[in-house]
Amino acid sequence: MADTIVIVTSADRRYAMPLTVMLWSMLAHCRKDSWLEVHVLDGGLSGRQKRKVLRSLGSGRYTLTWHDMTMPSDKLRGLPVFGHVSLATYYRFLIPQIVAAPKAIYIDADTVVLGDVTELWSEPIGDQHLLGVQVGTVSSGMLIAGAEQYGVSPHHPRLSAGVLVMNLAKWRAQDPFLELKDYLLKFYDRLQFWDQDALNIVLAHKWRAVPGAWNYIVDCGLPVAGSNAETMARLHREAKILHYASSMKPWHYYAAHPGGALFYEYLDRTAWANWRPTPPVRALLNLHFWGDKMRRVPGVGRLWTMIIAQLRRKGN
Description:
Blueprint: E1 4-11, H1 16-29, E2 35-42, H2 47-57, E3 62-68, H3 95-98, E4 104-107, E5 111-113, H4 117-121, E6 130-137, E7 157-166, H5 168-173, H6 177-186, H7 195-202, E8 207-209, E9 216-218, H8 228-238, E10 241-244, H9 260-267, H10 281-284, H11 287-295, H12 301-315
Parallel strand pairs: 1-2, 1-4, 2-3, 6-8, 9-10
Antiparallel strand pairs: 4-7, 5-10, 6-7
Helix pairs in contact: 1-2, 6-7
C-alpha cells in the first residue's frame, strides 16, 4: 500500500462544478494502490452541491473532509480585498492549522489533473516551506511590489501558487503568517496577484521548483496557433496538471482555447454530465450567433446562406 497522499483544495458555490472535475480527474489518474485524504476548504458550497460532488466521485480510495470557511478566521481580518479578490484568496495560509498532516499538496479547483499526483508527492521537499512551479522571474511582466525592500533580486524565480506542495510541519515550526500579513498590509495598493505576491517575496528563498508540467497554465481567452488536434496532443504530452489560470475559464461561453475541451471530457463523467454554458445576452443579439445556429438545422442551412448572400448583395 502506498503512502496516504494529502490533497487540499478550495471552492465556493461558483466552483462546485470545476472542483468536481479536478477531483474526478485526479482520482482517475492516481495509481490504484494509493489512498487520498482530501480536504476541501469550503467557502459556502450548498448541501446539494456537496452531495453532487460525492455522487460524482463514488466511493473507495479516498476520504473527503469539508472545512467550513464561511466564518472568516480572526487571523485573516484586515487583509486587503478588492473586487473578485476576497478573504478566500488567503485560505491556503491557514492550511497548516487546519490539516494535521506533515505535508500536503494544494491544488486550485480550476484545474484538470492529467498525471499521477503520487509522483508530485514523491518530490523531495527537504527543509523548504514549499515546492511549486516557476513562472518567469520576480520582474516578469511587472516587478513584484516590495522585492527591493525585502532584498529579492528581480532575476529571482517567480512561484505560481496554483499548485503547491506544502511542508506543513515546517510551517507550524516556523510559521510565516505574520510576515505574509505584514507584507500584504504594506503593499496592498501595489499587489498584482495578492497571496502569490506575498509568497514570492516573504518565502523567496524557502521554496524549490518542480517541473512545469505540474502547473501547466493556459489562457482560455486566447485561441492558439495551429490545429486543435496539435494543441490537444501537446497538452496531453506536456501537462500533468492543466491550470485554467486566467479570468476566462473553460465553462465560460466565450472560452477560446481548445484545452477547454479537456474540462468537458471529465465533466461529462460526473453528475454535471452534458452541462454547457448558455449564451449571454450579447451573444443572443449577435447575427453570427443565429447564423451559426441556422446553418446547423437540416434543410435550412442552404436557404439561410442564400438569404444572407442576397442581403449582402443588396447592401453593396
